[in-house]
Inverse folding.
């Protein structure tokens, strides 16, 4: 795996809507780089005969029947919202794109 | 981002088609009609109070664990099978990451490179009687988003709003996204193919019983991609010409709009390309009122969704037995059903096409089941009602007239109680909400005069008043009787059976 570049981190920060200063960017390149390297070690033991996996449990088809269960109720649902209005979650102006 | 206020240049449609070959891609999102959401047990009813159908899972609260709705998977497989797709033996969900408050989790649970169904097709019939095979790329499972209300802006749109209010009742409702391959070779029929495809898909989904398929309520939504490429010297060389840059027109929410939006984009692209300019790869917004699209968001870095397999859900691996069992539950294909009904009803190809264009197949089936003759049912649904629907830009079922009404009306005509023009008046009354045909006929005093004496008297009077015409009939010119019948009907103030009047006239004169 090629090393993480400063541009990669800036791009990811943009996607995550996180505003990083130059100093923070430099620091994150180093810190994230270490994490990636550590995780990459797993690939060293991944042999041809080991299937890539996305889930630790050997399960498939875990489903539930299509039966309605009680919802939270609007009051409880909104109880953690910093702002609410008209029984809805109030959020800051959305970027001008629709 | 700005919304283009000025109309963009377009060229004449036929001219555009002389120089360019249109290529379409259609993405249809269909909301399933399951009782609960895709990954939680919240109800899915339309129109509930805001945020009353939400729970920790669909609100994306920490620690909540999603579990797949069994019925939604079955519906997805049935849709795939009905579209002649392969069904994946093993597939996963994936997280599509983006930041937008309509998705409280900051990702949408979708499928990425492992759709549940892939490589299918749907044959659609066009109004000229030809068939176009729409190649299906994939059908995958995902979840719907919440609904935002933009506050403070002048028009309720995002532009100018100072904050937004979000209702998550819709977030997590099962969606199936059906994506076509690039559709080529349609030529000038492209807009019609698009409309016919979405119409056929809607018909199929309705027959499967998996969705309400109400475009006006958003349970069926279409995004229409279009690009143009230069026309090749011969049709056989057209596929060697690389595809042009495409635009994606979002949320085109009626069959007619699908057709109009594709047609508009063809004429707009052609104008841009004619000037030697490039098409911007962007989303476009369709405006129903003005019939144009305007520029939306340009494709950008923000479209980097960083998909990865959803760790909270285990793979879906339908057994072949399950798939075959579900195949056994598929309804008769709409195309075959239409052929069967056409033969049962004895309609000509042209008559059947009128019925389809009026969207009246189901209505006629119900009307016949309610006792009408196939000819009578067709006459009303594709005649008077289709004409009105066309004028008022509605569908035939929007007038409050039911198959039972039409069957009753047809019965009144067959029994000789109403003639054609009276039946029309009765229908007016039914549309105006005055009641059933029988009630309207009673209330308006519409009934053919069954008193032969009155009719004979009218015939005598008309013959006396028109001796020249009467003589022509006596001399064997039977068609001249038509003028006399008209006079008799006038004399009877329309409340007579024209056939009977004709009988009496001919009996007296020949
Ligand atoms: Zn829920």
């Amino acid at each position: 795996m090629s090393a993480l570049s400063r541009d990669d981190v800036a791009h990811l920060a943009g996607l995550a809507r996180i505003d990083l200063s130059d100093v923070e960017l430099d620091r994150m390149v180093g810190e994230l780089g270490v994490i990636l390297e550590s995780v990459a070690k797993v690939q060293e033991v991944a042999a041809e005969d080991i299937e890539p996996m996305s889930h630790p449990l050997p399960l498939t088809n875990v489903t539930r029947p299509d039966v309605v269960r009680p919802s939270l109720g609007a009051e409880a649902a909104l109880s953690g919202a910093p702002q609410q209005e008209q029984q809805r979650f109030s959020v800051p102006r959305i970027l001008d794109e629709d | 981002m700005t919304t283009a206020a000025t109309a963009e240049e377009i060229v004449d449609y036929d001219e555009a088609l002389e120089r360019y070959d249109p290529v379409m891609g259609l993405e249809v999102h269909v909301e399933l009609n399951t009782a609960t959401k895709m990954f939680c047990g919240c109800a899915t009813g339309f129109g509930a109070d805001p945020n009353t159908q939400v729970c920790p899972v669909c609100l994306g609260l920490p620690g909540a664990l999603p579990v797949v709705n069994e019925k939604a998977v079955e519906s997805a497989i049935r849709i795939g099978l009905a579209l002649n797709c392969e069904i994946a033996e093993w597939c996963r969900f994936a997280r599509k990451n983006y930041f937008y408050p309509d998705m409280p989790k900051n990702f949408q649970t979708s499928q990425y490179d492992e759709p549940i169904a892939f490589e299918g097709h749907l044959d659609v019939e066009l109004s000229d009687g030809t068939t176009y095979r729409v190649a299906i790329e994939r059908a995958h499972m995902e979840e719907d988003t919440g609904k935002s209300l933009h506050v403070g802006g002048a028009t309720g749109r995002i532009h100018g709003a100072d904050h937004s209010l979000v209702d998550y009742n819709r977030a997590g409702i099962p969606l199936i996204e059906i994506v076509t391959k690039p559709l080529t070779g349609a030529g000038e029929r492209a807009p019609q193919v698009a409309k016919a495809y979405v119409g056929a898909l809607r018909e199929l989904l309705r027959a499967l019983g998996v969705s309400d398929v109400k475009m006006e309520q958003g349970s069926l939504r279409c995004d229409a991609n279009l690009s143009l490429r230069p026309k090749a010297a011969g049709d056989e060389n057209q596929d060697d010409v690389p595809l042009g840059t495409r635009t994606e027109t979002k949320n085109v929410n009626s069959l007619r709009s699908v057709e109009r939006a594709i047609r508009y984009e063809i004429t707009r692209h052609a104008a841009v390309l004619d000037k030697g300019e490039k098409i911007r790869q962007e989303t476009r917004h369709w405006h129903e009122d003005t019939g144009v699209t305007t520029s939306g968001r340009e494709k950008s870095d923000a479209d980097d969704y960083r998909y990865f397999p959803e760790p909270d859900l285990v793979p879906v691996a339908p057994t072949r037995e399950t798939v075959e069992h579900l195949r056994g539950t598929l309804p008769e294909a709409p195309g075959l059903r239409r052929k069967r009904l056409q033969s049962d009803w004895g309609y000509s190809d042209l008559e059947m096409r009128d019925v389809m264009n009026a969207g009246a197949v189901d209505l006629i089936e119900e009307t016949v089941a309610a006792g009408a003759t196939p000819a009578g049912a067709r006459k009303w649904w594709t005649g008077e009602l289709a004409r009105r629907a066309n004028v008022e830009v509605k569908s035939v079922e929007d007038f409050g007239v039911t198959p039972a009404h039409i069957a009753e009306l047809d019965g009144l005509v067959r029994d000789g109680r109403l003639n054609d023009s009276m039946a029309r008046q009765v229908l007016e009354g039914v549309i105006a909400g005055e009641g059933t045909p029988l009630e309207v006929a009673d209330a308006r005093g519409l009934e053919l005069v069954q008193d032969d004496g009155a009719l004979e008297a009218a015939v005598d009077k008309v013959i006396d008043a028109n001796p020249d015409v009467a003589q022509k009939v006596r001399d064997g010119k039977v068609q001249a009787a038509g003028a006399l019948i008209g006079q008799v009907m006038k004399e009877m103030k329309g409340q007579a059976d024209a056939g009977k009047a004709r009988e009496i006239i001919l009996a007296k004169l020949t």
